[in-house]
Amino acid sequence: MRKSISLLFLILPLFGLSLFAQHQVETRFRFSLPLVVEVKPSSFIHFWGSLLGLRRISSDLAWMRLLQYYGTLEREEEHVHHLGHCERGEYRELLPRCQEVVRLDPYFYYAYLFGGGCLAFNHERYEEAIQLLREGIRNDPKFWKFRLYIAAIVYTRTKEYDKAIPLLEEAARYGDCPEVVKVFLANIYKAKGEYAKAIAIWKNILATTRSEPLKSIAESRLQEMGVLR
Questions:
Q1: Distance (Å, whole) CA 153 – CA 127
Q2: 35 alpha-carbon distance from chain centroid
Q3: What is the distance between the alpha carbons of residues 58 and 53, in angstroms, rounded to a whole number?
Q4: Whole-angstrom Cα distance, residue 226 to residue 223?
Q5: Which of 37, 62, 75, 88 has the most CB within a 10 Å radius?
Q6: Ranges of each domain in the chain
Q7: Residue 170 pLDDT exceeds 90
Q8: CATH of span 2-224
Q9: Does the structure show a pLDDT above 60 at 102?
């Protein structure tokens, strides 16, 4: 009985602190954050972090787990980087893991762009990609890149690549453009026979990426086009 009472006295202040932290955050942000119960964090650590008001830290931890999850194939015996080739059904938890990140921190814009780009351009799961980006629009309607990516995804889904290319080019001009979008654009250029543009993108990826597997892919593509020996 005493243990139950002691536990209750421990939980009540923590719950009160979480409500206070939630209120303080909402008064500082332009749009309200989702409630803790809407986040549905997959980890006990993330749950308590969000409950105590440490949502941004919890989001960063969830982001690291997402990158770790997406950096390797689900089948441990295969070691092929996701930007090389992906089947539609792989990484079934990609959308919910991205949602976990952005619901802990709705202003983590890169997570929306990365997740939407991977779902659409790596896996052809266009509806899931649009669903994630629309969640971003609900959280911050003024962040115009969400609509840019949705338009590019819609045109890609309908195979209207001539309409998708200008949108992808616009996205690629910005420093926060996910590499998966650049890779997809380079592949479109190559398929259309615009090798100079494809080479320029692969050279940029080779010079800027911190991913060793992607460096290998860039070198391979440049060798195929006669740039590297």
A1: 9
A2: 21
A3: 9
A4: 5
A5: 62
A6: 2-224
A7: yes
A8: 1.25.40
A9: yes
